[in-house]
Here is the input.
Amino acid sequence: MGKFSTWVNAARLRTLPLSISGILVGTLLAAAQGYFNIAVFSLALGTTLGLQILSNFANDYGDGMKGTDNENRVGPARALQSGLISPTGMKQGIITTAAATLLMAILLIYTAFGSENFYFAILFFVLGVAAIAAAIKYTVGSSAYGYRGLGDIFVFMFFGLVAVYGSYFLYTQQLNWMVLLPACSVGFLSAGVLNLNNMRDRLSDEIAGKNTLVVKIGEKRAKNYHYALILAAIMCLIIFSVLTAKDFNDFIYVLAFIPLLLHLKRVVQNEDPRLLDPELKILALTTFFISGLFGLGILF
Here is the structure.
């Protein structure tokens, strides 16, 4: 199935901080209310990382098999595209990762709800299976939703709403509609990372027939959409803090808005899609730092 280092590269480690941002926010919000369980946190983290790696393997396989990853691609070469992992090997990697992720999800659900909350367990099991299916179907198969401009919706839903609100509920088993604000914020920022990726790959995607939202709406509107996502994320956090803040610590995350706004400035001025590639890492890491500072400010 290929060398270990090849699989590590295919897992695209730079995407992992973004994937755990939602879990971090949901966990720290719950901890601030006195709810925390190290086993739930560890399994939630493992499940989320499994889903992200699964998505990366599936994207590598789906885009490679469809010919989307070719000499026109701007971003880093993929494992299947480079011939470092065979289609059969990548398919085996997808199956193995999906099985391991599902097992962790089941353990997470049992640890959080036990056998007493059957309906909650069933609901989260369905969400887990849906998340695994969404991770695979983004680029794999004839009905891949990433090729129809629907990727942003799924990223917002699973990286934002499900990750933040879902993890918060795993600890507290309580409904708190205010948590939807930071959940939406993380979702908007995550969708921003996907949009940035699609802006970078717009020309090659269009040639390959991958009709992402950016391909559908064009470069200028994609930039405006990007600004809207980032500004909406900022506003959701500020509104939450204004409504719930108890002291100035609750606003410490505002410091991380500086690199975020500098990122926006560079996107505004950008004229070469290839130069957007470093911005992916910057936005992903900024999202992670905002999430951490936001949660820690509330906790302490």
